[in-house]
Every structure is written in structure tokens, then in C-alpha cells.
Design goal:
Helix content is 50%, strand content 12%. A hairpin with a 5-residue loop joins strand 2 and strand 3. It has a domain of 156 residues: GroEL, CATH 3.50.7.10. With 605 residues, it is of the alpha+beta class. The strands form six sheets. It has a four-stranded mixed beta sheet with strand order 9-8-7-10, sandwiched between helices. The protein has a three-stranded mixed beta sheet with strand order 4-13-5. Strands 6-12-11 form a three-stranded antiparallel beta sheet, with no helix packed on it.
Length: 605
């Protein structure tokens, strides 16, 4: 039996506000970790918005829609999951407030009218942002943001490395807290330097291969996290390890078993029928012939490997006992059941081709290594390989060892590092190469890749003021068009929710930052102007410093591209939520028992 639930704007808002209440506990630099207890008794602590929302047992379909939108956005940018839900809730409140001010309608149709008005406003807002938001950020927000950034960083002659650390520090502070944010920022900076990852394509490579580039070690403090030169393969030797003294060490990658395929009963019968006739005494003889051929084939394969000087065999599949025995006899080390990600990275770093035909092993299949030794990390023994140094200035392969006192802590730090790589990839990604829908005739971005802005609500304050100014200008030039000013007002009001939550403990600080941001004169790159009534009130040395002519913002940085993607993703999510007007509650019994057919006397006749 089905139950029908009609959804109105207030129902959507109530659902999102419930998710917002959960996220608020961990939002901002002063936010804490959320504690979850599973049915098994396992405890999990996390500040990751995506992880917090994912582990919730959500039954309402709208809540699951929001979480799925957040997961998609997080997979793209690696950041902004908590800001996402706060902006969705704030935008729905502003739309609800505007929709409730529509002309009076009968009480029975009030909810329906509000929902229709909300959909119309959302359509107009999404159309406006797709056409104008990028230009507003480029023309109005970016110049003032650059001036604030110059004033905040130029005093110490900050290098690009320092700016990168500040960008990473802001991310880790909101994700992991302030205790280890400096440690993790320095660790990721070294990772980027080792792998020479300073472009979008190189960051994409780091993102694709991250599962094979890190090793989690449980039982050690986070401060023990470090780098290991080369690659760590998360398998142990299947044969006794021999001290390989040759230089270079030569290895071969196999994607198939070296043991020839044994024939099953049907295949053996067919072979016997075709070759020797259907006689029982020939059956055992055919098996002996096949066994002799298989043994001789294996010996030929290992003889060829010895000729090529191979001493390490890496395999994606499990090898037979006969293969392991011959490898031990030939003093070759075998590492089997290696994951596809690790083999793909090894092939990329070594330049060798994997073997797909055991009888066609050529020199191009042989990889040259500096060393291949066992390594003990925590309670596990792995295989550690290093590669020869290149004469050219190229990447230095290295593996990140992420330590933690518990499995949950190491997973939390590993997810944070993976997400920060996605954030950097998005920051350096050209905006016109993305899947954001652009209207015909619209020019590609002028938002430079890698552009960052001072953290602490700077972007939201700047865009808020820019939207209000654009709405006023549009009203003057087009007095009859009232849709754009309303849309600008709604979006501008919704954006202020983020700095309000950041400075929720001090309203005066909120006003100070807002005033200080818009005291900036974009035409004067040498200084930031500050109104006299606020210049003496900047007393918090951790976030601000005051002087006669300058206004200092937070020392952290945020990605402008990630902010842009966040707003666009939020608008798409709200649009999808407002399109839902009915929920059908279907019985959980998906396979009901079929009823017996009934027959009448006419049917029988």
C-alpha cells in the first residue's frame, strides 16, 4: 500500500535544518569533532562534513538527496561540505522569507503558492549566476581580494611556498583542528615538491594514484608521519628474500599466472579424442604428456628470466606452488597479489611494460630498480622499491607514511590529505575546461588558476557587497526589470551565513571584518584603508593586527575556484530540492508473494 506525502517549502527547510544542526557542531576554526558510536561499539571522531553526513542513518529522501549532492561536490573539490549544507539552509530561508511576502492568497493554497514562487526565484537565481557570477568575481571581487592579500602577506616578503602553506593550513585547521595543521601542511608541501606537482595535470596524477602513494600505520602518534623514498608495495615476499647485490636490480611485472593452464575434464576428454582416440589407457598418458610439457615450459620461462638478469617478480595474481618453487631455486623473489593501483604506479615509474605472454618476455618488460627490500611499518611487513635517479629534473617518487594512534585517526588524516589534493587540483584547474554549463556566446574564464583569497569570510563579504551593487546598478539602467535586484539580494543575504557562523562568538568581530574588507581601496595596491571608528577596535592578535593605515585579515588563504564551484553546486542542489513536490512511501516488501489465480466455471469449461 502506498502513502503520498505532499511536500512544501517549509518541509524542505525543516529537513535541511536538521542536517545543519549536526554540521554546526564542527564548523569553523573553533568547531569540535563529532562523536559517533556504531552498533558494534566502535567509536569514531571526525570533523569531516562529508564523513559526518555519510554515516548518518537518513530515512527521508530529501536528506539523502542533499547528502548525495555534497558527496559529488566533495569528490570534485575535496572541500566545502560543511559550508555546502549551511549555504543550502541559508538560501532556503531567504527564499522562504521572500516567497511568504507574495500577495495574499487563500490559506488552503498558501503553501502551494509559496512553493511555486520559490521555484521561480530559484530558476532566476540559477540563470543569473550561470551568466553573471563568474564575471562579478573576476571584475569586482578579485581586485579587492588581491589588495587584501598583498597587504596581508607582503610585509614578510612571503614566497609562493609560504602561500601554499597558508592555503593548506586553512584547510587542515577546519578539517583536523589546529593541533597538527602545521605538521600536515609541511608534509603535503614536501609531497608536492617531491613529485613536482604544481600544475593541474600533475595534481591530477597525484589524485589518481593516491591510494598507492600512502601507507597507514596504526599505533604511533601523528607526529611520526614521514616520507619514504620510492614506492611501498603493500604485500610481503611470497618466497624467501635474497640479498640482491646486483646493480641495478631488475624486475618484471606479470598480469597472468606463469603456470600453464591445467585442462578440466571436458577439455582433457576433447584433447584425448582428437589426438589419441577414446581409450582409457590413453587418458593417463595424455596427462603425463601435458605435465611434462608444463614443467618444461616453466623451466624455459625461468631460464629466459635468468638470461635477462631478473631477480624480482611482481604479480597481480597468485602464482602456483610450482612457480614459487622454481623461483626459490633460481633465487628470485616473488611478490604476488599486488593491487592494480600499485602495479599501475610501478609501471609508470619504472617505464617497463607488463608481461601478458610468458613465452614472449623481452628487454622492454624488464624494469631497473636501485633496491628492493622488505620494510617493517607498524605491525606489517611490506616490499620497498626505489628507482634510479633521472638526469633530468623530474619527480622524486616517495610514499607518505600516515601515523595515528587508532585506525579511525589514520583514516581521518588519510582522507584529509586526499581531499586537500583535490582542493589544490580544483584551484589550479582552468575554469573553462570544466563541466560547468555556460551559455552560448559566453567567453571562457579570466579567473586565473591558483588564485587564492584571504580566509575568514573575505570572499563572502566581497561577493555580498558586489551583488548588492550590481542589483542597484541594474535597477538604474533597467527600472522595469525587478527580477535581477531581487535575485542579487537573496543570494547576497544567504552568503553572509558563513561569516556569521565563523564569528558567532563575537558579533563585533563580524562587523569589524566586514567593514575592514570594504574599506579596501582596489586602486591603491600599497595600502588598505580602514575607518577610524574601527581601526582602534582590532584587538585580537591571533586573527588581526591594527595599525594607522593597514587592516590585517586572517593569515589563512582560501581557493577562489573552490568558492565558485561551491556556490554553483549549492544552487543546483536547491533547485533539485524545490522541484520535488510529492514523496511516495512504498512498502519495503519488494517481492510480495503472488496471489493464487481464481477460476470460474466458465474458465474451466
Amino acid at each position: 500500500m502506498q502513502r503520498v506525502q505532499c511536500l512544501h517549502l517549509k518541509h524542505v527547510l525543516q529537513t535541511v535544518c536538521a542536517l545543519e544542526a549536526v554540521i554546526l557542531r564542527s564548523f569553523g576554526p573553533e568547531g569540535g569533532q563529532v562523536l559517533f558510536t556504531r552498533d558494534t561499539g566502535q567509536v569514531m571522531l571526525s570533523r569531516s562534513g562529508t564523513q559526518i553526513l555519510t554515516v548518518l542513518r537518513l530515512e527521508h529522501p530529501l536528506a539523502r538527496m542533499v547528502v548525495e549532492c555534497i558527496r559529488k561536490h566533495s569528490r570534485k573539490t575535496g572541500d566545502g561540505s560543511k559550508s555546502f549544507i549551511l549555504l543550502v539552509a541559508s538560501l532556503l530561508r531567504t527564499i522562504h522569507s521572500a516567497a511568504s511576502k507574495e500577495p495574499i492568497v487563500p490559506h488552503n493554497y498558501k503553501s502551494t503558492a509559496e512553493s511555486a514562487t520559490a521555484r521561480r526565484l530559484m530558476e532566476q537565481m540559477l540563470e543569473f549566476t550561470q551568466e553573471k557570477l563568474e564575471d562579478l568575481i573576476t571584475v569586482a571581487v578579485a581586485p579587492r581580494g588581491v589588495r587584501l592579500l598583498v597587504n596581508n602577506l607582503s610585509a614578510n616578503a612571503v614566497t609562493d611556498y609560504d602561500k601554499l602553506q597558508k592555503l593548506l593550513g586553512t584547510f587542515f585547521c577546519t578539517r583536523l583542528g589546529c593541533t597538527h595543521c602545521d605538521l600536515m601542511s609541511e608534509l603535503i608541501c614536501k609531497l608536492l615538491i617531491n613529485w613536482r606537482c604544481f600544475t593541474f595535470s600533475s595534481l591530477q596524477f597525484l589524485n589518481d594514484n593516491f591510494p598507492a602513494l600512502h601507507t597507514a600505520v596504526v599505533g604511533f602518534p601523528v607526529s611520526c608521519s614521514r616520507f619514504i623514498a620510492g614506492q611501498v608495495i603493500h604485500r610481503d615476499f611470497a618466497t624467501p628474500h635474497h640479498n640482491v647485490r646486483q646493480d641495478p636490480v631488475k624486475a618484471v611485472v606479470f598480469t597472468i599466472s606463469l603456470q600453464p593452464k591445467w585442462l578440466n575434464a571436458e577439455e582433457m576428454l576433447e584433447l584425448q579424442t582428437r589426438t589419441m582416440g577414446d581409450h582409457r589407457n590413453h587418458h593417463d598418458r595424455s596427462i603425463l604428456h601435458f605435465s611434462a610439457w608444463a614443467e618444461n615450459s616453466l623451466e624455459c620461462i625461468f631460464a629466459n628470466l635468468q638470461t635477462l638478469g631478473v631477480s624480482i617478480l611482481l604479480s597481480s595474481v597468485k602464482q602456483s606452488d610450482a612457480v614459487l618453487a622454481l623461483a626459490t631455486q633460481a633465487e628470485m623473489c616473488v611478490v604476488e597479489c599486488v593491487s592494480e593501483d600499485e602495479l599501475a604506479l610501478f609501471i609508470h615509474l619504472s617505464g617497463a611494460s607488463p608481461v601478458t605472454d610468458c613465452h614472449g618476455i623481452q628487454p622492454e618488460h624488464v624494469a631497473s630498480l636501485t633496491s628492493c627490500q622488505p620494510i617493517l611499518l607498524g605491525a606489517h611487513r611490506y616490499v620497498h622499491v626505489t628507482f634510479p635517479d633521472s638526469k633530468e629534473e623530474m619527480a622524486k617518487p616517495s610514499t607518505v607514511v600516515i601515523c595515528g594512534l587508532g585506525e579511525g585517526q589514520t583514516d581521518q588524516y588519510a582522507h584529509a590529505i586526499e581531499d586537500v589534493i583535490r582542493m589544490l587540483r580544483t584551484t589550479w584547474e582552468p575554469l573553462d575546461a570544466t563541466a560547468i554549463p555556460l551559455q552560448s556566446g559566453k567567453s571562457p574564464s579570466s579567473i586565473l588558476p591558483g588564485f587564492a583569497i584571504t580566509a575568514g569570510g573575505t570572499f563572502e563579504f566581497l561577493l555580498h557587497h558586489t551583488l548588492l551593487q550590481h542589483g542597484k546598478t541594474h535597477t538604474i539602467s533597467n527600472p522595469t526589470d525587478t527580477d535581477v535586484p531581487i535575485v542579487c539580494q537573496l543570494l547576497a543575504d544567504a552568503l553572509l551565513c558563513l561569516p556569521r557562523h565563523i564569528y558567532s562568538d563575537n558579533l563585533r568581530r563580524f562587523l569589524q571584518v566586514q567593514t575592514g574588507v570594504w574599506s579596501c581601496d582596489p586602486s591603491r595596491p600599497d595600502r588598505i584603508l580602514c575607518k577610524p571608528e574601527f581601526s582602534q577596535a582590532l584587538e585580537e592578535p591571533s586573527m588581526y593586527s591594527s595599525s594607522s593605515n593597514n587592516f590585517k585579515m586572517s593569515s589563512g588563504l582560501e581557493s577562489v575556484s573552490c568558492k565558485y564551484y561551491l556556490i554553483m553546486a549549492v544552487l543546483q542542489c536547491v533547485k533539485s530540492l524545490l522541484r520535488v513536490d510529492t514523496v511516495l512511501h512504498v512498502s519495503s516488501d519488494l517481492n510480495p508473494k503472488p496471489s493464487r489465480p481464481t477460476y470460474s466455471s466458465d474458465d474451466e469449461d
